[in-house]
Each structure stands twice: as C-alpha cells, then as structure tokens.
C-alpha cells in the first residue's frame, strides 16, 4: 500500500549529511535543529487542542505582541541549543539580547522560531528559519554575531504546511526533506532545488504601495500593466504573509518576493530582519541559482551593525531580480 511505500529508497537527513561530507559537529547541530522542528511541528499541529493558539501579554524587542507559539517555539529551540555542545551562542527574534550557552562550541545560531505568526490563529502557513555562523575565538558579545551572510556555514527553514518540510543548504545546493509522519523522520524528497531564471509571478504586500520608494512604485506598476506595459507580459501575484511560505513557493516554482523599503513609519523603513530572516533565505536562494538584494546591495554582503537590524529584501528568479534592480539604478 501507499503507506508502506513511504520512504522506500529515500535518503534520510543523516544519510544525506554524510553523503555531503558534513563534519560531526555541524551534523549534530543540524540534527538538533531538525529534531526540535519535529516537536514544533507536533505542537503546531495540535493547535487549539494543546491550547497553544492566541496571544500573550508580552511584547518582543521588535515592538510586536508575542503569540503564545512565538514564546513556546523560542523556548523549545533555546533549550535544545543550550544542551548541544556544538553551540557557543544564539540570537532569536524573540530574545532582546544574544544568549551565551553553557558550552563553548564552534557555532552561533540565529533563528526566527516562528515565522508568519499572524497566520497562527487562522490555521495557515508558519515556519522556522535558522542561520548557522562560525563562532569567533574569545569572549562572546553581540559583535561575535555581526558577520556578513556570506560567512554562514548552513541555513534553512522548516515549513509547517500540509506536510512538514525542511529546506537546507550547507553551501552545496539546496536539499528539501519531507517529514514522514509515520516514522517521524526527514526524508530527502528534492535533491537540488533550483529557481527558474525567469518568472511571471510576484509577491509583495500591495497595501503598502503608497509608502514605497519611486523605483519599487514604478517596477510594480509596470508588472501590473501586463501585456500592454513595457514588460509585455502578464504577471500573477501571491502573498502568504509568512516569508517561509513565500520563499518556499519561489524555490519551488520561481518568482520574485519583496518586502521593500517603505515610509509608513519613518523610524522603521524595513520589515524583515537581516540575521535570521534575510540572510538565511538569501543563502538558500543563491544556492538554488536565484538572487537576493536590498535594491542597492547584495544581502549576503551586508556588514551587520546590530543583531535585530532590518533590511529591504528583493529575492528570487535571477533575471527578474536583475530587472527590478535596473529600476533602482534610475534617478527619479
Ligand atoms: P514574524 O512572524 O516572524 O514576525 O515575520 C513576519 C514577516 C514575514 O514572515 C512576512 O513576510 C511578513 O512579516 C508579513 O508582513 P505583512 O504583515 O505586512 O503581510
Ligand atoms: Mn514576529
Ligand atoms: Mn519572521
Ligand atoms: Mn517570528
């Protein structure tokens, strides 16, 4: 039956990491993250039955009211990483400051424990995003984390969708694993994710249109003109409101995703966070043949200045990102 066929001849995550030649400590750390994501998947799936939905009374350093699951998933990852002797420190969307763990391991982990929190209470897509950096020698400070995305040794996300999927890169392409609910094991279901160079699909929160800068205004206006505009092509739009979901679609069937600069709140012109949203996603996207930019700078080349720094993000199909960047080269 279909049931007994699941997983036949498919590589497990462990087998795949071995075949990639990943060292023992990085392998252990990836397993810690993967195993914790299985527990998160379990909690998310139980939803209202486990009483995990809804909001807390606390605000995080981002100025957002935390959902119960933001806090629960943050604690799960923090506890697991604290017990893993390959870790030196961690940083999270839900932690005001960097956290030093007990061990003096080789790695730093930056994570967004639950991406797309506004989707929790409507039973829609959420995920976890992580970035692994080498731990520098000496005392651990915020500065230890402020390394360009280029320095990442691994990055990935877990999507808690109709199936739970783990997308991973260690710099050797992007591998996609699906969690087998029978055995609770991640199995390799796509060996090398690849983003088509061209696309006819874009993702942006259109409700912010009046707040964008001129280059993005003009670029999107031209997409909306379709076949009668300068692009001479009809574009489709999608917006999941969880970066994991939108980036997963881009990795699966191409597209351009952007959360651009806006002046809705002049104190906060960008939404997405560099260290645990933009950088790990940029690493995955580049490894799948796509591009990731702020409009003016390649995401992974940015020298970070603070752990919760925010950036504009334009990523996806290489030719479409290039076209969008051409609009940023023009003087308006
Ligand atoms: P988080 O839930 O981790 O705070 O991240 C939310 C981010 C990102 O996932 C998504 O792309 C974007 O916010 C959605 O923004 P809108 O609410 O403007 O749609
Ligand atoms: Mn948040
Ligand atoms: Mn997020
Ligand atoms: Mn989050």
Automatic annotation (TrEMBL):
Co-factor(s): Mg(2+)
Binding site for Mg(2+) 2: 112, 115, 277
GO CC entries: cytosol
Cofactor binding: number and manner: Binds 2 magnesium ions per subunit.
Transmembrane segments: none
PANTHER family with a match to the protein in the record: FRUCTOSE-1,6-BISPHOSPHATASE-RELATED, SEDOHEPTULOSE-1,7-BISPHOSPHATASE, CHLOROPLASTIC
Protein name: Fructose-1,6-bisphosphatase class 1
